[in-house]
Fold this sequence. Notes:
globular
Amino acid sequence: MEMTVQLTIDCSDPQRMVTFWARPWATCLSLRDRARHVACLLGVDGVPEAELPAGAGDIPESIIDPAGRGPRVWFQQVPEPKVAKNRWHFDLKVGGGRDVPLDVRTTAGQDYGGTAGQSCATVLRIKDEPDMGLYATAMQDPESNEFDVV
């Protein structure tokens, strides 16, 4: 049997999180179309729409990689708020990797981080360490989950 991976993120407002993380600047992921979303909610692809409960899939709660390489990211609504630092985070690798000169990676990171900041993300700190060949921006999404733009 094939194993797949899903990343589940607890949150208070799944639709807001999907809207934030599905933006083109954030990831290569996109909103599921209604039929695929509903089938995924039920855990079985190809479920006939007639068999679905009323309203199923009306509110997007997931993002997927349209190329099928990355995991599904499901934003699960929970009643309690986030109270501590994440033990995981996304690295949005926009700079091209260590083979790209640091000044080019820095400019790419600054541009991406600026766009993210205009979309409800908050800058926590800049990691500017040229001696280590590093430039990254630590940020938070609308529910204070940390992520890095590298």
